[in-house]
């Protein structure tokens, strides 16, 4: 089979029939052999029921259903671990990623053997709320200063790639996953193509402020030790400043003490981010648990 398309779905029951119609029409027109791996990430609406009835009428549709919501990263991993195609694609279920763009990316990949990954980046964020836009822009800036893996602003998980890249990605044992960073870390030849995300027609974005913040911090922690190393540097500087202050003034002012406590708490906070990361990797719990599959062998229960 030529192409495995992985589609993470969380509470997308309103969009799935239309998604399936549009995607299969476009794929059949371009005569690509494909499988659609729809991953129901523990939805609490009728997503699974919809997927079940779609899979009954279309043998190219395969379904993996989780025991609860594990998050998009886990849904994408499950899809990758069960994909059999020579090429693999990831796209959202909410029709913000169009099948036409996907097929364009696939054609680019097969026409240029030197490319391993064709990745879409958002050239417009007009459909997003200004708050999310600002936070995202800030994340890319901070990430590219702090992290060892650089990210193209607007880069998304909307990608088509060779199965060699898929193998590299699933070989990484880490439990807290940040796929955009992993793509950058594993290397390979990547070409970025711009795309304009469509407006979400049904349902709403699953990203709350807290989720975005956790995701962004996690992404930086995954690929950089700069924040924890800077705790040492900040410690040395604040010690020296206080020491000189004490020698010159004979005591420390209240303001200095409050500032020191602030620095201390912040340092503990940064360290705790790394400790919690070590803890969750040590527990080594699976990234997801599968409840049911349709048309697919439950290869792993990672
Ligand atoms: N998604 C998922 N699990 C989650 C949250 C989201 O599988 O916990 C899926 C969702 O159904 C969609 C894709 O990930 O297909 C992108 O989610 P969303 O549209 O909320 O993100 P945005 O487009 O706003 O970045
Ligand atoms: Mg979306």
Poorly predicted regions: none
Termini, distance in Å? Answer: 24 Å
Structural class: alpha/beta
Summarize the amount of helix as a percent range: 40-55%
Q: Over all CA atoms, what is the radius of gyration?
A: 22 Å
Provide the β-strand percentage band.
15-25%
Widest sheet: strand ordering: 7-5-6-4-1-2-3-8
Order of helices and strands: EHEHEHEHEHEHHEHHHE
Number of helices: 10
Bound molecule kinds, no repeats? uridine-5'-diphosphate, magnesium ion
Shape: elongated
Mean pLDDT: 90
Q: Largest sheet at a glance?
A: 8 strands, mixed
Number of strands: 8
Describe, in plain words, how this protein is organized in 3D:
The chain has 302 residues and is α/β, with parallel strands linked by helices. Helices cover 50% and strands 16% of the residues. It is built from 10 helices and 8 strands. Strands 7-5-6-4-1-2-3-8 form an 8-stranded mixed β-sheet, sandwiched between helices. The protein starts with a strand and ends in an 8-residue tail after the last strand. The model has no long low-confidence stretch (mean pLDDT 90). Bound molecules: uridine-5'-diphosphate (UDP) and magnesium ion. Magnesium ion is lined by residues 92, 94, 96, 200, 205.
